[in-house]
Amino acid sequence: MEEFTVSKITALTLQQRQELLHLFVDADFVLPDEGSDWLDSAIRGSLLAAGVFTASGELIGFARALGDGVSDCYIQDVTIRRDFRQLGLGSKLMDFMLTALAEQNIDWVGLIATPGKADFYRQLGFEVLENHTPMILKRSSVQQ
Predict the structure, then answer these.
(1) Is the pTM here over 0.70, yes or no?
(2) Which residues contact 3 (CB under 8 A, 6 or more apart)?
(3) pLDDT in the model for residue 86
(4) Which has the closest alpha carbon to 126: 87, 84, 78?
């Protein structure tokens, strides 16, 4: 069986930027024509970013946390490349994220599960935030 590593990402190589864009497109997080230049800023602006890498160094999984660096954060953009799913890599990635956040004394971690993924997060200890409604404001809907 192939070996995989999970490690913190602080900067992307050109190859990793392309691999991350493909992960985001595959997960329906972005459209293919959005390009990849913005990904470097997203990594720099994250409290924590981590990747799952094959033995040859290929980026096949990703997650990041946004937060204040003191107490609260939100995990987002969690994805594993489709042909590597069902191998436990998502759990391995989330364990890495949650351990690293705990080491920073982050004691409140939220996320919004994509459709069909709530059970995955429940197995990691996440609970539905009762009496709260996830909401979004999209720029395209804001009056200019």
Answers:
(1) yes
(2) 54, 55
(3) 92
(4) 78
